[in-house]
Amino acid sequence: MANGFKLSNLLSQPDFVVGVATSSFQIEGGAEFREPCIWDTFCKKPGAIKDASDGLFACDHYSRWHEDIALVDELGFDAYRFSVSWPRIMCADGSINQAGLDFYISILDELKRRNLKAFVTLYHWELPQYIEDQGGWLNRDTAQAFAIYTDVVSSAFGQRVDTYTTLNEPFCSAYLGYETGIHAPGKKGAQYGKKAAHNLLLAHGLSMQVLARNVPKIRRGIVLNFTPFYASSEDSQAQHAAEVAHDHFNDWYLRPVLQGEYPELLNRLPQNERPDIEPGDMQIIAQPLDYLGVNYYTRSFVVSDEQHEFKILPPPDKAPVTAMNWEIFPDALRKLLLKLNNDYNLPPLYITENGMASDDKVHQGEVKDELRVAYLRDHMQAVAQAMEAGVDIRGYFVWSLLDNFEWAEGYLKRFGIVHVDFNTQQRLPKQSALLLSTWLLQRNK
Ligand code: IFM
Questions:
Q1: Which of 13, 245, 274, 321 can pair with 229 through a Cys bridge, CB separation 3.0 to 4.6 Å?
Q2: Alpha helices, DSSP H only, in 114-189?
């Protein structure tokens, strides 16, 4: 293995956490025991989900969680990152669903029993439909509702959690959900995206305050997704396009949470696209973070033309791509980590998601996902190199434990290191899981 020594250095760092991640809607099922959410509604829209599927049953993790956590442990991971379903906890009439809380408390107790760290995300895109009916993330009150939900969850979970994440990838909730409409709730319009983003960030800040009050000793932070943008040519217009894309997609979320201000781009937005910022909002948003979660999958090339300040291009011809048609380019992760470290006074980082979809097939009882093996190895290598260059990175999580409901792609894209047969719900660790496990178990010796 090229530069293999760096990878083993990474894995043998005494406190470096290696984990695996999932999210509630994508795996749980058990929909009859919770309130409906925006994804239930969106899945019913003709054409919204490629295979016309839904999350009502998903990986049936709601009944099989015990088996799934045993797998995380047996494979040798240190930590399990999962999300709590807001509509499983808070009922439309304002009451609390104790059975929903108990479900997660059982998971947390089992993790503790197995000495696995619990990384709990409070929002991974599952907005209760009754809140969307009041305007969802376009309504400021949703941020207050999220703070109440945070209070209920953190009071009930007590000290069982290792690390809290307020929001997972607010860019996706705001931009894909309220601007392009390819995700739930499917609203479309440039005038919505940044308004939704602001209310999401406000929800993050309020939630951080509640966590600081209720569970001050538990680590808290946010998880952002980053796409490094590369200019398609040397010319200054293309360079400018890459900077503008970075401001819209990456810095629009990072700068407010770290520095309490939006990028300068704010002043160039048409009036109707600007968020409604009230006095004090930016201070609420910029609560001190104990860590920042970085999700990385791919990079993108951009150009500008007469109509667009920036335009995202498909991957270059012949570039290696995943089943999502995302370019495989690990060095962009290394560079991203160095850039963030250079541009900001960062808290410690965790790579909270990294992984790839591939067209995996079971053959004679095995799934040989060689491309994923190389993808994970090379990206972990990039993390190790960034650490060597001085970036404070405390852990790495593979996305995802199981093949699952990949949002608008339905069940067509398999991101798991464990194969799921959606007819029988049988789990089968792929070659990537087995290899990771060998590395992890060697390290644990
Ligand atoms: O499956 C998603 C996950 O829910 C959020 N981050 C990206 C993953 C792959 O698209």
A1: 245
A2: 129-132, 141-157, 170-171, 177-178
Dihedral sign of CA atoms 372, 77, 297, 392 in order: negative
Q: Which of 81, 127, 56 is nearest to 405 (CA)?
A: 56
51-99 pLDDT, tens digit each: 999 999 999 999 999 999 999 999 999 999 999 999 999 999 999 999 9
Q: Select from 227, 234, 208, 229 the least CA-distant residue to 219.
A: 208
Instruction: Please tell me the distance from the alpha carbon of residue 405 to that of residue 412, in angstroms, as a whole number.
Output: 8
Atom number in ligand 1 closest to CA 355: 9
Residue with tokens 């190790």: 384
CA angle 393, 108, 226 (to 5 degrees): 35
User: Model confidence over 266-281: pLDDT tens digits?
Assistant: 999 999 999 999 999 9
List Cα–Cα distances, 345 to 104, 177, 225, 255, 273, in angstroms. Answer: 34, 30, 18, 11, 29
Q: Is the pLDDT of residue 445 over 80?
A: no
Q: Give the position of tokens 């699952």.
A: 404
Say if ligand 1 is within 6 A of residue 406 CB.
yes
Q: Report the C-alpha gap between 280 and 297 in whole angstroms.
A: 34
* Cα 406 to middle of ligand 1, angstroms: 7
**What average pLDDT does the chain have?**
97
Atom of ligand 1 nearest to the CA of 125: 4
Distance CA(72)–CA(75), nearest Å, equals 5
Instruction: Report H helices in 47-120.
Output: 61-74, 86-89, 98-113
Kindly list the catalytic residues.
169, 353
Mean pLDDT across 422-429? 98
Given the structure tokens 């963030």, which residue do they identify?
Answer: 340
Instruction: Specify whether the CB–CB gap between 112 and 71 falls below 8 A.
Output: no
Domains and CATH numbers, the chain: 8-227+290-297+324-443 (3.20.20.80)
pLDDT exceeds 50 at position 3? no
Contact 166, 143 (CB under 8 A): no
Q: Is 102 exposed, middle or buried (0-12, 13-18, 19+ CB in 10 A)?
A: exposed
Q: In angstroms, what is the span from residue 439 Cα to ligand 1's centroid? A: 25
